[in-house]
Specification:
The complex is a heterodimer of chains A (492) and B (546). Chain A has two domains: 195 residues, no CATH class; 206 residues, no CATH class. The radius of gyration of chain A is 23 Å and the shape is globular. Chain A is built from 23 helices and no strands. By secondary structure, chain A is an all-alpha fold. Chain B has a domain of 50 residues. Helix content of chain B is 26%, strand content 22%. Chain B is built from eleven helices and 23 strands. A six-stranded mixed β-sheet of chain B has the order 3-23-20-19-6-18, with helices on both faces. A five-stranded antiparallel β-sheet of chain B has the order 8-11-16-13-14, with no helix packed on it. In chain B, a hairpin with a 6-residue loop joins β1 and β2. The radius of gyration of chain B is 26 Å and the shape is globular. Classes of the chains: A mainly alpha (492), B alpha+beta (546). At the A-B interface, α2, α11, α20 and α23 of A face α1 and α2 of B.
Chain lengths: 492, 546
Amino acid sequence: MEAIELLKYNQGNPLLFNSVLFFFLFTVLYILFTAFAKNIKARNAILLIFSLYFYYKISGEYIGLLIAVGFIDFFVGKYLVKETSLTKRRILLAISVMANVGILIYFKYTFFIVNQFGLQSSQFFSYFTREILTPVGISYYIFKSLGYILSIYREELEEAETNIVNYLLYVSFFPTIVAGPITKAANLLPQFRSATNITRENVSKGLFLLITGILKKVLIADFIALNFVDRVFENPDLFTSFECLIAGYGAFLQLYFDFSGYTDIVRGMAYLLGFELEENFRKPFLANSVSEFWRRWHITLYTFLSENIFNPLSFSLRRIGIIGIYFSILVTFLISGIWHGANLTFVVWGLIHGLCIVFDTMFRNTRKKLVAKVNERYFKWFEILVTFHVIAFSFIIFKAPSLESAETFIYKLFSGIKIVHIEKWMEYYMIPFLVMVIGLLLAFLPERFYKSLYVKFAAIHWSLKASAFALVIIFVYQVLGTSTLPFVYIEF
Amino acid sequence: MNKYTLQILFSIILVNGLLLSLSLLGPDFTIKSPIDGEEFVISFPDVRESLFKSAQQNNENAENFLSKYDDSEEIEPETSTKDNGNEGLDDFLTNPETDGERALDIFFKALKNESESRVVRVAHYGDSQIEGDRITSYLREFFQKEFGGEGVGYVPVDDITDNVNYFRSTSGNWERYNVFNHGYSSGKYALSGLVFKYGNGKKEKKEDKGKDNGNDEQTTPEEDVKDGESPIEEKIEPEETIPPDTSGGSLFSSKNSFYLADSYNFLSSAKKQKPKKKKTASLRGSVTLNFGKAVKFSKIGVFYGKTGSNAQVKISDLKSGDEISTVGLEGGSPFGLKYVKYRGNGSTIRFDIRTGINPEIYGFFFDGNNGVQIDNLAIRGHSGDGLLKIDKNYLQAQYDDLNVKLIILQFGMNVMPTIHKESDLERVKKYYSNLFSGMKSRAKNASILVIGPGDMGVIRRGSNVSHPFIGRVVEIMKQCAIENGCAFWDTYHLMGGENSIAAWAQKGYAARDGHFINRGQKIIAAELFKGINGAYKEYLDRIKIN
């Protein structure tokens, strides 16, 4: 009976990638996957069943919503690709957009809207909001599915998917369902249609990414979160200016290592199954402007927003010139903020990024003139430093549970640092401090460092790679006393 | 099936097999170092526990308790209705009876007979859980609403944390001595456990080393303060010799503190200054307090120890630009408290202190003329034993002169890091027994209420669960409190008991380490007030019958 209960959905104990149960289930999946690897239909059917079961384990009855979204867009896509009448194409697009955005707004933002507009006392609204829970990963699979329809509408995708299993697998593919990457249909669907081709590179990259992902997530992100950063953000009133400063930097580091570690893990899993997912991070700490930052941070989201919101909006506003561009930037980042969560903190965070990019755009030419007059290399590092601080500041608002809490945090941050607090902090928080310093170094190290590390890892025998993976798990378990927080991005 | 697919399959099976085999060694496997014999514990996943044990331990009691606060915008204390036999009127308040009197009766008697004519004071001691006037401010608000009173009570010269009622700025030359970390050899602390002096680079620094003092009685000699003799506004010559405090450090010193962040024990805003030549006049320091609009008071008090002759404090209202008064701080030994009346609406009060010698300034009071006043007396990382370092008679005299009728001791969480095994609890029992009996002997004319620690989370095998010994510590503190004639309020069981902290944290009422956050603080204060007020009603009924 206990075993049967284990396989059922349990709201208090969702299936996480870092759980023992997932590891066992993945082993079973891989045995079946290996047996049916040559049969594309059977392989995809197994992967779909596993993906749907995985989603059921984390979201229960909301699996119905996922399947409904998949079916709607599958059929809309099928008709849209054939349709030549612009009016009918627009109607089909509208159906998909309304369904997707409507579902997203209803399940994710109803409470927020009702609270913001003080509608809690209304019987009508209280009836509709009484049992809403935000399904895990809804923002990701909605954007994936909507992105597919928009690609067909813009004729970037010339063919619609004709196999419902493949399409549902695209929407629900288990490595990406919780928190992305927001894979493009043009990238993933062709891979589902092709035969499995696992190479030596898949073995190496898969295990390498799993190792780096676990280390990033558990040893850096979770460690600094639990041992310092979260404590300060939960109750900034209790901490000094210096602690808030360090927690501010720490929050940026934690979010990066958490999300990029998670992305490494899911990309590693996908590699082991013979699929390649898009990169989501490319050394974001080395960005020398906020615009550049968004080409390096959560790349799949930025790509989606750029292709589906900024480009069409700025095109439609081209007559008003540069103002139209600025407006489009602000709208795009406002939507980005809202997409991240139903909280005013995300709205403010999005607007800060939008304003910074508007600023970048406004002073692009001035910057070029300035660069011509000074040492370019030093100036670039100066820009990196400024960008780092601007982004770190914005992530204080992002991470704070409310605007009031962010305000308290910022007030404390600027309340004046006393030397004696630094000495004491170092005394008590030496280990989290060192972990943060290591994290910062790793975040600033150039890409070639990781590439050379990968080349060395790829050269060793597969059994040694597997042993290294096992050792990392055992090592990580020694510090598990400070781990297994859900992925920070899970709520998006 | 290509060979690379098989390599991956074998890799997965290899990792699974290895981890399964290691898990057979047990969740913790001890290895002894062949070199120095030191033991290392290696943990392995307990497969069964990992599979079948829910990651999050839900606590229905906590969920149910908090649900009544979830939808209410305002948190107000309810009226207590539950009769709990001999132990007071609340499930969580124990008000034991000794020789026909209950522990809180002294306080209740003062509430009934004195609160309309003078200020009945409550000294609320605690650690970071209450610092910055958290919890205390809400408790004060509830008491003053019911029994009258105004002002925020005691305000120290400086503190590491901001206060919820005011913004403070001080001249940079203050050094803070406290009973927890930095001993002040005379033992002449304020009842808050603090003394402020001008920094001169020669601060008496005596770090606690975690040594168990366990001593109930103060080692400093008794002061010549006779019953009924008020030292307030009286100049008393300083005693000739005062032996240094040799009582050793706190058992639960800052290094052992659960809250690492708590352990700073503020070292003042002191800039390290070069030693100055001794001057005979014009040593100066200032403190400015900018109060929130809601804070009203009608008396401002300056509280001090030795100040030497010609010491004076100019009190100004910066909002109106008026000088309120210039107060001479005569002598001040053993201590002095000078009140001035205040009739303004001033939100910004400035104190300019000028003395001939480096003075002992204890802080300020912002009070009304009657009702209840609750002083927030918090020291980070403290577990309470430092209070016994205050000269016994000196403290007793302060309690009497300030009309302190209730002493609340809200400690316990900072002892937790020192408890690793069952036998450690004996030490805790001795410690709290000493503390409560020691405080009882110092506060003969006041009731004592011990507030047990709330639930606090620790990470065990990846799950956020209650500290394994927190329930036991609560039991011990309750037992010690009752044995020493103190009342006890059980925060832990009010919260929902074991693993309740997860629910409180999830709803944003507390941080996972156990610190209450805004609404959580108000809930605790409301429930505490409900408990005390319920017991007061029971007292009124009881004396009516008698």
